[in-house]
Specification:
By secondary structure, this protein is mainly α. It is 74% helix and 1% strand.
């Protein structure tokens, strides 16, 4: 019954209906046009904002911590296993479509993160909270839609995604060390439980320590592989672009598979438009003190996740001598590809990398869903305890479930979240454009941008502001 419902949803959103393929392309082009292709015009400025935004205050986390928290949720199985799935099912051309959806998605990620920061609130612990459910309720005054998004979020981050991350860790460790997935699931659940009870700040501190280290190590290994095989790069790129546009022998069928799997796995990896990253953006105390600063920070996150890290995995696989079978393959394919370059060390390295990558996603996923408990009046000790128990149980279950089962569940949850969130942020476009113009006009006047409510036209604004 449940599997049948999940299959129907995925077929409608990703399969024959392909609703999300068109929706994500529309959103990317829409916000790129409305924001005058901010991801290209202000590409260098993203790094400047990040450089100047390393300190938070007692009410929030720093922008760097927010970036790391956002990346810790993004950077996981999507980068190592998801890219492998995209290539195994869509060929090398799927990588091109991952790049395209990321470049367009940078504008979408900018838009939703600005809203996350703008419509944030303070919780009972004097910490900032926010996300799509907040800006839907406050900006659009649609409480029912906010609750619907929160339900989709719980299905995704509270249930499906952490199970899928645990599944990939267990699969990698079983492939390399023959560790029983049941034991792996139990250990992940216990360690994650200790971290998440500390709340968003605890998760942000953990992400700040782990994400930069694991990201740099993976990029370094990919660069070594590229240097070792540099004479094969022209052939790799030629094959990639031929596959991306259906110019190979497989023809139109391969083109459709490349587009579908590239965009689907690209979204799962960078999450632009899915409505997840605004939760991390809302928790930040931005520098400069303006919501648009977080738009630049999280736009950088989309770039790092897909254009940098997913490309590293693609290089590892496409420059190897393994055969692309056309059957769904996950982390095992990445491990085999790495082993073809480095022998036994390759299996160990990927097992270690995916364990760190996926585990940071597991703990960040908890924070995203937990921030929406108040919508169901469950933001109390009993409610948090019940949610934590469900979350940890799904982590344990996911470690022993089948690859197809957990990915199908995650795809359905991500698709439903994206459907609701993109609808909301498109309706909130006037607010996004107004607040972005305010920020950029201050930059043009050589001023340090400062947010003043009276200077912008914001949907849902009251005399008390947008946070009350």
């Amino acid at each position: 019954m449940i599997n049948s419902a999940i299959s129907t949803i995925n077929n409608l959103l990703w399969g024959q209906g392909q609703i999300l393929i068109y929706l994500l392309l529309f959103a990317g082009f829409w916000f790129s046009f409305k924001l005058k292709f901010v991801q290209f015009r202000h590409f260098r400025y993203m790094f400047k904002v990040m450089k100047d935004s390393t300190q938070g205050d007692k009410s929030g986390i720093s922008s760097f911590q927010a970036l790391c928290t956002g990346l810790s949720a993004r950077v996981g199985t999507g980068n190592l296993a998801g890219v492998a799935i995209a290539i195994s099912l869509g060929g090398s051309g799927a990588v091109f479509w991952m790049w395209l959806i990321a470049l367009l998605g940078m504008a979408t990620g900018f838009a939703e993160s600005v809203l996350g920061q703008l419509y944030k609130i303070r919780d009972g612990n004097n910490e900032f909270r926010g996300g799509p459910a907040y800006y839907i309720r406050k900006g659009l005054n649609k409480h029912w839609l906010a609750v619907l998004f929160a339900l989709c979020l719980f299905l995704g981050y509270g249930v499906s995604f952490s199970a899928m991350q645990a599944n990939t860790i267990a699969d990698a460790l079983n492939n390399t060390f023959a560790i029983d997935p049941t034991y792996t699931g139990a250990v992940i659940a216990v360690i994650a439980g200790f971290i998440v009870v500390g709340g968003l700040r605890s998760i942000a501190r953990f992400a700040e320590l782990i994400v930069p280290f694991m990201g740099l190590a993976f990029v370094a290994v990919a660069l070594i592989i590229t240097a070792m095989n540099i004479h094969h790069l022209p052939t790799m790129f030629a094959d990639m672009f031929a596959s991306a546009f259906g110019l190979t022998e497989a023809g139109a069928g391969a083109l459709g598979a490349a587009i579908k799997n590239g965009i689907q796995r690209g979204l799962y990896s960078n999450e632009a438009g899915a409505g997840s990253v605004p939760h991390a953006a809302a928790g930040a105390s931005p520098v400069p003190n303006h919501p648009v600063a977080q738009g630049y920070v999280q736009m950088l996150g989309v770039f790092v996740d897909t254009i940098v890290l997913c490309s590293c995995t693609a290089v590892v696989i496409l420059l190897s001598d393994i055969t692309i079978s056309g059957e769904m393959e996950g982390i095992g394919m990445t491990q085999n590809a790495m082993s073809s370059h480095f022998g036994e060390f390759g299996h160990y390295f990927v097992a270690a990398a995916i364990t760190l990558f996926a585990f940071t996603s597991v703990v960040a996923n908890y924070a995203y869903a937990e921030s929406n408990l108040h919508l169901f009046k469950l933001d109390n000790k009993l409610g948090r305890a019940a949610y934590t128990a469900l979350y940890l149980f799904m982590v344990f279950w996911g470690a022993t479930a089948s690859l197809k089962e957990v990915w199908s569940m995650a795809d359905a949850a991500l698709g439903l979240m994206t459907l609701v969130n993109v609808y909301a942020i498109v309706l909130l476009t006037p607010t996004i454009v107004s607040i972005t113009k305010d920020y950029q006009s201050q930059l043009k006047a050589n001023k340090t941008p400062e947010f003043k409510l009276d200077n912008v036209d914001i949907q849902g604004k009251t005399e008390k502001g947008v946070w009350e």
